[in-house]
Amino acid sequence: MMRLAQLGMVVVVLGVWELLVRLGVIDEFFFPAPSNILQTIWVWVSTGYVFPHLWVTLIEAFLSFIVGGAAGLAFGFVLARVGILERLFAPFLQMFNALPRVVLAPIFLLWFGLGIWSKVAFGFTLVFFIVFFNTLEGVKSVDRVLVNNARMLGASERQLLRHVFIPSALTWIFSSLHISVGFAITGAVVGEYLGASSGVGYAIAQAQGVFDTEGVFAGMFILMFVVLLVDLGVNRIERYLLRWRPASTS
To answer: Which of 83, 126, 129, 201 could be joined to 189 by an S-S link, Cβ 3.0–4.6 Å?
Structure first.
């Protein structure tokens, strides 16, 4: 029923949008009709135009997600367990986190060129801090009584990490991963938009350059659909890894 309700909301929004465009209430130049956008998407898909661009964007987003997520997890666990390191690095991490990411994109283009690595570096800066701060808080919020009881039973630091800290922090970690999926793709697309020779961001920039608003919206819709599919995959992995957790009664 919930899926049907969500699908109904999409149909209503697109239907009202289409009606307002047809009635001339909304300027079609700025907000093209959904039917025209879907037609452009069909042309992009049927001709195969979008697939090479989408493949490049997905590779960049995947690398950003994996590298940024792994680094965020590692640093989060280490700093949460070694208090002196957390106090040492805290002000620097806060300063770097406060930097506007868009400012870094031109620098990465200069350093790494127009290839995929400038987009991976940009996406890394978006993913890393989200995963890092959630992992840090997740590990620090583990019940101290549980940790002390495990130590009394002779658990080593490695056993604590495997059987206490990681399971307890998984909810925080997956919460960050859900957000990071979108940000990884955002980093790839923004990097492509600023300078690239391929990718969905490049295709959107090309469409914008010739005032093809239908192409711009088509690229946006395709990205939203891809993020939805990836997030569903993350949900399945989360349910599998957290299958030990009692089901919510709400």
So the answer is: 201
In a domain, 20, yes or no: no
9 falls within a domain: no
Give the pLDDT of residue 42.
92
pTM: 0.79
- Say what the pLDDT of residue 147 is: 72
CATH number (domain holding residue 159)? 1.10.3720.10
Q: Centre a 10 Å sphere on the Cβ of residue 76 and count the other Cβ atoms it contains.
A: 26
Residues in contact with 147: Cβ distance below 8 Å, sequence separation at least 6, in sequence order: 160, 164
Compute CA distances 28 → 15, 127, 177, whole Å: 15, 36, 37
Question: Rounded mean pLDDT of 99-110?
Answer: 80
Is 143 within the bounds of a domain?
Answer: yes
What is the model's pLDDT at position 249? Answer: 46
As a whole number of angstroms, the distance between CA 73 and CA 228 comes to 23
Q: Is residue 22 part of a domain?
A: no
What mean pLDDT do residues 225-243 have? 79
State how far the alpha carbon of 146 is from the alpha carbons of 153, 156, 160, 185, in Å.
Answer: 11, 14, 10, 38
Residues 6+ apart with CB under 8 A from 60: 116, 119, 120, 123, 187, 188, 191, 192, 199
Instruction: For residue 57, give both structure tokens.
Output: 């964007």
- Rounded Cα gap, residues 84 and 112, in angstroms: 34
The total number of structural domains that make up the chain: 1
Residue 118 has pLDDT above 80, yes or no: yes
Nearest residue to 169 (alpha-carbon basis) of 85, 232, 177: 177
Question: What is the pLDDT averaged over residues 7-20?
Answer: 88
Give the mean pLDDT of 221-233.
Answer: 85
Distance of alpha carbon 77 from alpha carbon 201, whole angstroms: 34
